[in-house]
Fold each of these.
Amino acid sequence: MDDEEARTRLLDAAEELFYRHGIQAVGMDRIRTASGVPLKRLYRLYPAKETLVTAYLERRDRRWTTGLREAVTGAAEPVPAVFDWLARWFSEPDFRGCAFLNAYGELGAAAPEVVRAHKAELHALLTELVPAGAPPALADQLLILVEGAAAVAALSPGPEPALRAREVAEALVRQ
Amino acid sequence: MDDEEARTRLLDAAEELFYRHGIQAVGMDRIRTASGVPLKRLYRLYPAKETLVTAYLERRDRRWTTGLREAVTGAAEPVPAVFDWLARWFSEPDFRGCAFLNAYGELGAAAPEVVRAHKAELHALLTELVPAGAPPALADQLLILVEGAAAVAALSPGPEPALRAREVAEALVRQ
DNA sequence: GGGCGCGGAGAACGTTCGTTCTCCGGCTCC
DNA sequence: GGAGCCGGAGAACGAACGTTCTCCGCGCCC
């Protein structure tokens, strides 16, 4: 097992545990056990828990944004495609809301800056998707629909919140 | 200082600290210092931290739901009034998102059931507000708008998310 | 007024956390 | 083949947590 594989195993374990149980509720020893990476190597690759938390959020941000981008680029109707993608995400068995909103709610001002960056990226992506002549507030409204669907789905999982938000979004872009 | 005042002081301190810093980041000793209530009395009134957390969320739930109800009952247009009330809430200087969503994000399955109850109450209130002939999905969509505005405002405070959501809600109820 | 009991102040306890250290086996290099 | 070093396993450390205990001073009753 080289350092690269150890990093992957650590991030896999950290993502699963941090996302499911919250960040403060998961100790480094639990990540060590789940990943099989010795503590010494863990602290060589990530010198403190905070760096592991940041790396977990950054990798998840890359995967999430890339997945959404791939799902909507080339789609005939990109805005509804966003919510179809959300519906699939909300239906994953271990879905538990937006990891970045959860991290911000838990850590507050101490949350790493990738949390803000994630929301800025999402807003930028939505801005690209709205038609050229649309009012500038449309991207803000779509952002509210995306976040709202995720927040509602966090407490009652399933695709329904995404479908309800999709209906609203379709009505918005038609105008 | 009788027990009733001690309870108030404890809940005030707990609300301020839990809401600002998160639940796990605040120790009982910090609540003792902030409230001025001795540890012995604290544990007589709330035998464990979990009971204090639940009491904090239950009181906040009562205040929040009552405040929203009072703001919309009797309003000429109750649905937009919801978002005007949200705009004022988001503008409070220490606004940091929905305490119940934050608690759920932090505690996950270990969150007290008042978190779910809070969302159910909000959904019920929105159901009362929609016109009689409206499609049943409308309340779900309004819930998404409320939650989404709160989530967006958590990271970029100010009334704007509520105003954007209000515009969408007005378009929805007009149909 | 003297024993008594309640409540306040904070020390103390056991556990858990993040992080570091110790020990030891196995590989490398001459 | 032997010395030296790197990495693994897990004990150990200091701090912080939730919770309990000890001590002490003050008010009450006869």
Note: Chain A has a mean pLDDT of 96.
Amino acid sequence: MEITRETDYAIRCVLHLSEAPNDVIMVDEIAKAKSIPKSFLSKILQKLAKANIVKSYRGVKGGFQIAKAPREINLLDVIDAIEGPVAMNRCAVNKKFCSLSSNCTVHPVWVELRKDVEKKLKKIDFARLIVSKKQ
Amino acid sequence: MEITRETDYAIRCVLHLSEAPNDVIMVDEIAKAKSIPKSFLSKILQKLAKANIVKSYRGVKGGFQIAKAPREINLLDVIDAIEGPVAMNRCAVNKKFCSLSSNCTVHPVWVELRKDVEKKLKKIDFARLIVSKKQ
DNA sequence: AAAAACTTGACAAATTTTTTTAAAATAGGA
DNA sequence: TCCTATTTTAAAAAAATTTGTCAAGTTTTT
């Protein structure tokens, strides 16, 4: 029941960009600052760009920049961008995965737990994560 | 952020055994009843046995039986037995995995979320899961 | 035109999950 | 007691997923 390495990297990356919202930063710099394999990070940034969390600029002087105010981005946004919908069990997203379907008494537990976790993750925005760093 | 297939199987299995606490049931029967690959289930049952959630009997007339009252076993017990300590991020269990260690502002979020999820899972015992089935 | 930097897709390595196979143990009967 | 069918146990193999790499292509600035 863990987030993946990829998601962890994505969060670090958004954190880095959030700390300098006005700067366009190269993949290489983020990779070094946050100890993330560069080519893997490139891919992650693509997903974040598609989710409109970061903007990309190509060519010389290119790089990535946060696409909106850090307080407008929360942990759930990033996790969703990378992993897709959060679920504890695949059947909590799509019931066809639940071979026992209708009479599965555990199913509702996953659904509720999922809602709970989502609610919590939505509360943590990146402005807050930066602030707590400065303390 | 999902539980594994293995954990899902383990829960179904404990559920099956909880429904007949006085019976010793063969792997094969559980496997068929709950749509779990038989040999994979064997492995899962070993882990459950080590965690003292089920008892095993070998030889002819052998099989598995629930080791304590269903109300004494909760979802967290089973997940812990299979996956080890629940964490959202590996660094929430052991800080040495967190390359950014001391100044990682996300770390406390995982720790708290973990506590939350554990608390919820601990509340769901198998007596309850059976009851809701009968309704 | 050349250099710098992102984009994309294919591929490879590592890890985890699932399945298969062979070994060990036991109840029960000859 | 000893054999055998039955069942668990354990190790190994296969499949799937995750993580990481690389190279060719595209865009932008100088």
Note: Residues 27 and 63 of chain A are 6 Å apart (CA to CA).
Amino acid sequence: MTIAEVSELYNVSSATLRYYERIGLIPPVTRKENGIRDFQQEDLNWVEFAIKMRDAGISIEILIEYVTLFKMGKDTIPTRKALLIEQRESLAKKMEILQNTIDRLDQKIEGYETRVLKYEERLK
Amino acid sequence: MTIAEVSELYNVSSATLRYYERIGLIPPVTRKENGIRDFQQEDLNWVEFAIKMRDAGISIEILIEYVTLFKMGKDTIPTRKALLIEQRESLAKKMEILQNTIDRLDQKIEGYETRVLKYEERLK
DNA sequence: TTACTCCTTGAAGTGCACTTCAAGTCAATA
DNA sequence: TATTGACTTGAAGTGCACTTCAAGGAGTAA
């Protein structure tokens, strides 16, 4: 799969994909003899993982750490697991904040509900 | 209340509070005769709102728009309400993404669960 | 009265995560 | 054969949201 196809598939720019590879946020992508990237399923899995995690707000620094551990082999399995658990917890906290904010917005919107009615009343 | 006290109270730097006021993310703060900020309850409400919304990831641009509408008076009430509803929706979408990512992480962690066991077995 | 601390503003600097640009290679098509 | 279009790399540029710096003012303690 070419970089353009992957770009289309995951709705991310080619430049970003190259950037991710360059900084080690995904492992080196498979190349054809001429040096052109030819994404295999394994590469796609990494791309998808990277994009999903970034979308959830996990920092590039953390993700590079994860990929670096992966490259170091099996000895890092417990560390990698710990890293994922830590990130899971941080996302759960984010969810909580988000839920609280939504509740707060709902209250504020509810407050506007009556005020809009009054406002429209005034217009008559 | 001084800026240092507000800074402490909401765990945000004085510089950020000044910055928020300067860019119009909160309305102008009440001052003493000598020009020093003396936050009143009303000011605090704005500060709290701004910080909570920022924490939830709502952009500065949007929040400035809201404050600007507020300053323009009652005619903007329906617009303000619409803006809040829009943001509420966008937060709900974020929650969904977050939940999906957490689910995905849980699966990945579960996968590591067995691999860690194997790894520790190997060490014996 | 000098020194200290906290406040003020305006301007410049920083960190993160891309994004754009410049220069070049390669394969396919007019 | 020339040119078009997609690819390559390295470097520089961008946007957002602060953060730090520089210069100065006001109030209090020694």
Note: The helical segments of chain A are 3-10, 14-23, 41-55, 60-71, 77-123.
Amino acid sequence: MTRKTIDHVAALAGVSIKTVSRVLNDEPSVRADTRRRVREAMAALNYQPSLPARSLAGRRSNQLGLVYENPSANYVYAVQSGAIARCRESGLRLLIQACGGDGEQRIGEILAMVAQTHVDGLVVTPPLSADSQLVEALRRRGLPFVLIAPEGAGEGAPAVMMDDRAAAREMTEHLLGLGHRRIGFVAGHPGHSSSRLREQGWRAALAAAGLDAEAAPREQGFNTAPSGREAAHRLLERPDRPTAIFAGNDDMAAGVILAAHECGVAVPSELSVAGFDDTELAGIVWPTLTTVHQPVYDMAHRATGLLIDLVRGVQVPPVTWVGHDLKKRASTARAAT
Amino acid sequence: MTRKTIDHVAALAGVSIKTVSRVLNDEPSVRADTRRRVREAMAALNYQPSLPARSLAGRRSNQLGLVYENPSANYVYAVQSGAIARCRESGLRLLIQACGGDGEQRIGEILAMVAQTHVDGLVVTPPLSADSQLVEALRRRGLPFVLIAPEGAGEGAPAVMMDDRAAAREMTEHLLGLGHRRIGFVAGHPGHSSSRLREQGWRAALAAAGLDAEAAPREQGFNTAPSGREAAHRLLERPDRPTAIFAGNDDMAAGVILAAHECGVAVPSELSVAGFDDTELAGIVWPTLTTVHQPVYDMAHRATGLLIDLVRGVQVPPVTWVGHDLKKRASTARAAT
DNA sequence: TTGTACGCGTTATCAA
DNA sequence: TTGATAACGCGTACAA
């Protein structure tokens, strides 16, 4: 139960604790032979360096933070997995902070966490990444941080983004290519910037195809399946019923499919349905969902990599774009003639 | 950027740092008046104590660990949320550790994490909680820990469990009560103890109803929607097609519904489908899924509470049972006559 | 290439 | 009820 310390290792290897410290931190100025002896001693004792001691003594804690607030389980899980994987590659720990509360309080909570834990930097996920006050507070604090999918382009802070607008446009073009002309849209939560961008992509594709983008059927949803279901009912009741509905995320698309079932409208023969995000759900609903793959894991992995660079003083580009991907599954088909 | 320390607070409050420390740790032997002055000084400076310093100096780190390995996104999210909430109530931090690798290596990883981070205790989730070698290693290490849903009854280690067997039996009885006699079962992953318990509950209910439990239609699944779909196809092809199918979890139940759609079997009029767990999915598929609510958030919350007691030297019961709940939704109905 | 002395910010010990 | 001082286990600065 009594902790093994750097002193034990030093004694066993016959060197000073400073040399052990050098080996621990992969500093170059250690003779290969000495390094080997120290390594062996560490292994023999099953030595594990104390993170608190390192945090306290050094100017780095070897810990990064990940903050999120209230998104979906799938999103959080994917983000965490990507960030954890990247941290592991570099021998760092990830501290996860779930935020509650409103603006001011939230910022205080995050700054308190930073101060208490000594984290070296922060990965900020949406919707927190769109909070310009938070961004400003972090900047003032002088803490390295990387934003995932911020509003606009992160206001100069390093950000990892996907092109929601272009992806939505591509999906709409896919539907147009299948012969659809009345393509309805279920918009996502108004508070999320991605909602606006996706809607813009849909409109842009319609306009480019010579359709009246302003008059196109559009209903408001809130990123949940029930809201998608209700929006779909409103769309399906219209005299000029759409032959395709594009929902701003997969949950809402699942709601659209549910509504179609309820109205006796066959998917995809009478109605094509498309989603966005490519969550687990897309492969589970029936028919399986055509959707846009958002590489959440990859985005988190990259954001964490950028943060590691930043902490080490390496310059990083202001915006890193990640690609997206159309997943064509069973919920879309050629428009009935 | 320069950190505020206990010295600053002590100076401002006109006391020694030890007194500030006492206030910080809610020790009783401080005059109310002194305590107030110290509190005010802390607030005025927006003082945040250094967790690494406390971990290093004290015999407690005020940090608990949560270890998981590879379960579903929804499960992880619910467990984390419950544990984080409980930690927050007691002013503790939660360190989350995702494990990879096989038995030996996994144990080493967890013990290394414990040694490095100085966590005061560990919440162990399934399937790790069923690893008796891990349990033994933690016991030897002398670290407080609580198991969630272990195999058997946790081998004497404190555990939080739900009665999978009784719940599955109740669900089967519900189906029997709806007039079903041919009730098929899709078993979950053979590696999970809950799979066996749920199957036992199903069989017990059939036997109690005077049916031949041994000959009842049963197919193997692996906790995924595709495996549920395939199992359902096999069940639906039988000459004595079941009028109800009970799947060992919601994902597989979603697969069953999908298969029914594919075979042109109407749910619930021609086939009732029941699931287990009450994940998000249950409210999203069509028809919405009748299922057993497993209180994952609550289990994690309680397990963390027990762990906090344990760390403080308070005795806790060896097993804490949590209740379950039948959620009757749209996927089950009276058997066709 | 290696080692010595000190400090990081807190808790523990013991004395007042 | 309060305080002085020594740990805790490591990195940093500087010297050898």
Note: Chain A has a mean pLDDT of 94.
